[in-house]
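In this supplementary section we document a worked example of the pipeline. Step one takes a protein sequence of length 118 as its only input; no multiple sequence alignment statistics are reported here. Step two produces a three-dimensional model, which step three serialises into structure tokens for compact storage. The input and output of this example are shown verbatim.
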Amino acid sequence: MIVVTTPYVPGHRITDSKGMVFGLVVRSRGIGGNLMAGLRSLGGGEIHEYTSLLEDTRRQALDRLIRNATMAGANAIVSMRFDSSELSGTMSEIVAYGTAVVVEGDANAPAPDPTTVE
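The serialised model returned by step three reads:
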């Protein structure tokens, strides 16, 4: 599966669009992790417990996005983005989303002019 943040895949031509796809994950740190993160926040600096949680959550959201695009019959995802929010002050929501497409290799396919891409 090819995943790009651009609206095109260099060297490929989009032959079909399967529509928008997403991968959503909502996670909460356990009581021990929240306690350690709270204590660490008193001293300032990076909160490793939350960094690790969010890295894992983004990876899982991306895996779900790829799985959903595959089920839709796509072999690529264009315009992929992440979005995040906090729920109830204790949970993190991460969503990975983009457009599932079918692409074919085309060495002659020029990259679209960025001034005309919508």
